[in-house]
Amino acid sequence: MNNMPKVKIGIVAVSRDCFPESLSVNRRKALVAAYAAKYGMDDIYECPVCIVESEIHMLQAVEDLKKAGCNALCVYLGNFGPEIAETLLVKHFDGPAMLCAAAEESQNDLMDGRGDAYCGVLNASYNLKLRNLKAYIPEYPVGTADECADMIKEFVPIARAIVALHNLKIISFGPRPLNFLACNAPIKQLYNLGVEIEENSELDLFEAFNKHEGDERIPAIVAEMEAELGAGNKRPEVLAKLAQYELTLLDWVEAHKGSREYVAIAGKCWPAFQTQFKFVPCYVNSRLTAKGIPVSCEVDIYGALSEFIGTVVSEDIVTLLDINNSVPADMYKEAIEGKFPYTHKDTFMGFHCGNTASTKLAFCEMKYQKIMARNLPIECTNGTLEGDIAPGKITFFRLQSTADAQIRAYIAEGEVLDVRTKSFGAIGVFAIPEMGRFYRHVLVERNYPHHGAVAFGHFGKALFEVFKYLGVEEVKFNQPKGMLYPTENPFA
Fold it and tell me: I want to staple 381 with a disulfide (CB 3.0 to 4.6 A). Which of 95, 230, 336, 368 is the partner?
């Protein structure tokens, strides 16, 4: 996938001048060797310039990291560490940073071979706070070379997300549909997160689309679509228009990136879209998302942001779905009860009109938008990619600004069940442990909109750390039984 950065983490060892420098040197070498043996050297760079003991060493290390093309930093405490220089290293590097430390190796070497990095992490964390600096500190940040190598590997998707967000522009085409205030949130928090936004009128989009009529590239895109859809190509008459629209968006992205490297789109899809463009954009949205350019529906700006974060963390395709409808009792009894370890209230259906990439569907067909076609001619609503979402692990999540511009998030891991939905759209039967309580005491209680981003796999740990690094103070999750939500009735 494109539209995301490649992370290169510079590993810099630090040393307190009253401790043997050799401790940090040798422990850094052991750490790098352990990482290389397990994961290769593509993600990391060993800073050989110096062991950082002073501010001068710190500046030398930063210069070396920049020359080496590092965009993320690991401060490695081989011993107690210099609390000023090591935290100034985080400040002057100006990129995502983590901190981890060396465990003592043997009871037979606790005289000159004791590093006290366990103690040093405490002083480092205190000094980071004094300077209002952010750094990722693993759950247990002190370990052997192998353990610290694993910590750094876990930092890779977190660092990738932070680098990407600081170079992201969201392009929106609005305004948001009437009676759709759920997707309307203040954009102030985007700027706080380091994200740029370009808001456009759907009239601007329509003008650009019309200028692409007869584009010589359209036949090649149509051929791609035909190959992708195969026997599911049930609306061949609309493919040329969809290809024209896809080229419109791709050209817009290239022309409007500006100073940013990465892009996500919050697109318009109704109510006037169908009558003017004469199709719906769902399939094109799915194709761009599959290329690594997430496109949210219904001008959902924070939905696009959430999708982009999920794409960068998972390095995989994501989708955006409505937390849509309950599973009928007879379907639960017939297809779920006794076959899966979930109660009826743990299940629901995630749905959208047809924006999920074909590779994430168990089967798919090009169809028309059934809901819109209740009020419009069917031929105006062609363009949905419909089918059941493939079964497997998922993470449902969202980063959202509240009406008063506070930022909050939720994360819940679960799965798509291998159960036929017997419905329309891009849809799946989802199961999340304790979903009923999570639905009431997080989604409803905290006023989240009905759209949620879906990553295909369990990525809750990395997403949680990304949100923490971004300064999101409230990150909710589906709490297990016996762990009450603040608003949950203990007598219920």
Answer: 368
CA–CA distance, 304 with 323 (Å, rounded to integer): 16
Separation in Å, CA 341 to CA 35, 344, 396: 38, 10, 19
Give every CB contact of residue 60 below 8 A, 6+ residues apart in sequence: 49, 50
- As beta bridge partners, residue 168 has 262
Q: Cβ neighbours of residue 153 under 8 Å, at least 6 residues apart?
A: 35, 38, 39, 43
Q: In the block, which residue shows the tokens 């891991």?
A: 413
- Which H or E element spans position 67? helix 55-67
Q: Tell me which residue of 426, 409, 172, 196 sits closest to 301, measured CA to CA.
A: 172
pLDDT band, residue 403 (cuts 50/70/90): confident
CA distance 355 to 353: 6
Q: What is the DSSP letter of 227?
A: H
C-alpha 67/C-alpha 1 separation (Å) is 26
Tell me the whole-structure pTM to 2 decimals: 0.94
Closest CA to 281 of 183, 374, 380: 380
Q: Enter the tokens of residue 29.
A: 């070498």
pLDDT value of residue 21: 81
Interatomic CA distance for residues 165 and 134, integer angstroms: 15
Sign of the Cα torsion 349, 311, 364, 219 reads positive
Cβ pair 265, 293 in contact under 8 A: yes
State the pLDDT confidence band at 182, using cuts at 50, 70 and 90: low
Cis peptide before 271 (omega within 30 of 0): yes
**Using DSSP, how many helices (H) and how many strands (E) does the chain show?**
15, 18
Of 434, 266, 409, 257, which Cα lies nearest the Cα of 341?
434
Whether residue 65 contacts residue 33, with contact meaning beta carbons closer than 8 Å, is answered with: no
